Amino acid sequence: MRVVVIGGSGHIGSYLIPRLVAFEHEVFCVTRGERSPYVASRAWEKVSMVVADRELEDLAGTFGKRIAALKADVVIDLVCFDEGSARQLLEALRGRIRMLLHCGTIWVHGHSAVLPTSELQPRHPFGDYGIKKAAIEAYLLEEAGSRGFPVSIIHPGHIVGRGWWPLNPAGNFNPEVFQNLARGKDISLPHLGLETVHHVHADDLAWAFMAAMSSAGRAIGESFHIVSGKALTLRGYAEAVSRWFGQTPSISFHSWEAFRAGCSEADAAASWDHIAHSPNCSIEKAANLIGYHPRYTSLEAVFDSLEYMQGKGLL
C-alpha cells in the first residue's frame, strides 16, 4: 500500500518506517527536515521524503491538501496536537483513503481511577496536552461513528527507544538520575515512590500501528492503549535500575515541596505531570482486537535505551 507518515523522523517513525518498508509498502515521510531518524537503516533509501512545516501550512489552510495530493491508501499522523489541525486533515482526506491512524496519548484519561485503566473509562483530562488530545480523540471517534470515516487511534505510554533518554524513576528526563543510580549515589523520589509510570518500547509501538493497519476491520472506530504489559512504581523502577547497574539501591523519600526544592523548575514540572497522572493502562482491548503483544517489558525497554547510552559513552 501507499503509506504517508506525518512526523516520520521522530521517536516512533524511526522504528515504524523501516518496518513499513520491510513489508514492501510505498512510504512517504512528511517531516520538517530538522532531524535525522534515531535509528539508522538502509530502509530509508527507499522512502520518499516530503519537507513541510505543518504549523505554518495549517495556518494557511494548505497542509491537509498537501497530504491528500500524495494519494495515500493509509495516512499515519504522529504529530497532531490540535483539533483544528485534525479537522483540516480529515476533511482533506474524506473519501480518499482506506484508513487514518492517529497517534494519541494515555494522557487523555487524566487522573487514574479504576486500575488498570481501560479505553472505556470516562475522559477527565487535565493539562493543555491531555485536554487537546482528548478533544481530538472525541472528534475523530465521532466522525468514525456518525459519518463512517475510517480512523483508528493509538494511545502510547512513555515512549522508550535507542537514541534518547527514557523517562526516569523521578518522573522527568534529567539523565543525572540514571548517572547517580549507576554510581550507587542516593536519589530523591517524591512521597513514597508509589506513583506509577507506564513505558512502551518504540518498536512495540511501531508494530501496533502496523497491526492496526492489517486489522482495519476491527480497528477502525476504536482507540487502543499501546504500552508494556505492566506499569512500574517509581520506587520499583529506581530499585531495578540500581540493581541493573550492580548497585545497592539508595533512595530518599521526600514531601512534594522538599522534592521540588531540589529540582530545576523544568524537572519539577515534568515530575509533577507524571506523578499526577500515574498511568496504569490495560492492553486487553489491543490484544483482543489487533493482536498486540509487546515484546518488551517496561524495564527491558528502559535497559535497551540505557545500553545504547552506555555504548555512546553518555552513561
Describe the structure in your own words.
By secondary structure, this protein is an alpha/beta fold. 41% of the residues lie in helices and 17% in strands. The chain contains 13 helices and 13 strands. The chain has helices spanning 13-22, 54-60, 63-68, 83-93, 128-147, 176-183, 202-214, 216-219, 234-244, 256-261, 265-277, 284-290, 298-311; strands spanning 2-6, 26-31, 48-51, 74-77, 99-103, 151-156, 158-160, 187-190, 196-197, 199-201, 223-226, 232-233, 251-254. The strands form 4 sheets. It has a 7-stranded parallel β-sheet with strand order 3-2-1-4-5-6-11, sandwiched between helices. Strands 7-10 form a two-stranded parallel sheet. Strand 5 (99-103), helix 5 and strand 6 (151-156) form a beta-alpha-beta unit. Helix 1 (13-22) crosses helix 7 (202-214) and helix 4 packs parallel to helix 5. The longest helix has 20 residues, at 128-147. It starts with a strand and ends with a helix.
